[in-house]
Amino acid sequence: MKILLDMNLSPEWEIFFQSNGIEARHWSKLGNPKSTDSEIFNFARLNHFTIFTHDLDFSAMLAHSKSEGPSVIQIRNQNIIPEVSGEMILSIIKSYKDLLEQGVLIVIEELHHRIRILPLNK
Q1: What is the pLDDT of residues 20-75, one digit of tens each?
Q2: Kind of pairing, strands 72-75 and 50-53?
Q3: In this structure, are residues 65 and 75 in contact, taking their beta carbons and an 8 Å threshold?
Q4: Which residues does 56 contact at the CB level (< 8 Å), separation at least 6?
């Protein structure tokens, strides 16, 4: 699995994931930092990345596209630095690795998380 970190997340996540055996790249290293969310979404889909983000746009794109990918992990916590949320995120990713490879939206909040199989219009 490969994780694409959205611009709204710290590049520290790249280091965190890589140190835990997960391939990860921050968008700023792959494309134009001013790219639209649609461009990032299409890049992730074409290159088999799971998008890790803090905004709601990617889940809306999944709903409108009726697409089976890319998978999206959306963190909705207040404190989104790896030192605070990293272990919880890592645990969820490991638990749902197979689903993430098939196509899923995971929304992670402080005390719980939700999973939706793609496409969202099923």
Answers
A1: 999 999 999 999 999 999 999 999 999 999 999 998 899 888 888 888 889 999 99
A2: parallel
A3: no
A4: 74
**Kind plus residue range of the DSSP H or E element containing 25:** strand 23-26
Q: 73-112: per-residue pLDDT in tens?
A: 999 988 888 999 999 999 999 999 999 999 999 999 988 8
Give the SS3 label for residue 3: strand
The reported pTM is 0.94
Range of the domain at 109: 2-117
Domain count, the chain: 1
Alpha helices in the chain (DSSP H): 12-19, 27-30, 37-46, 57-65, 82-95, 97-102
The answer as to whether 102 is a domain residue is yes
Tell me if 26 is assigned to some domain: yes
Q: Is residue 122 part of a domain?
A: no
Instruction: Answer whether residue 112 is part of any domain.
Output: yes
How many CB atoms are located within 10 Å of the residue 82 CB?
Answer: 19
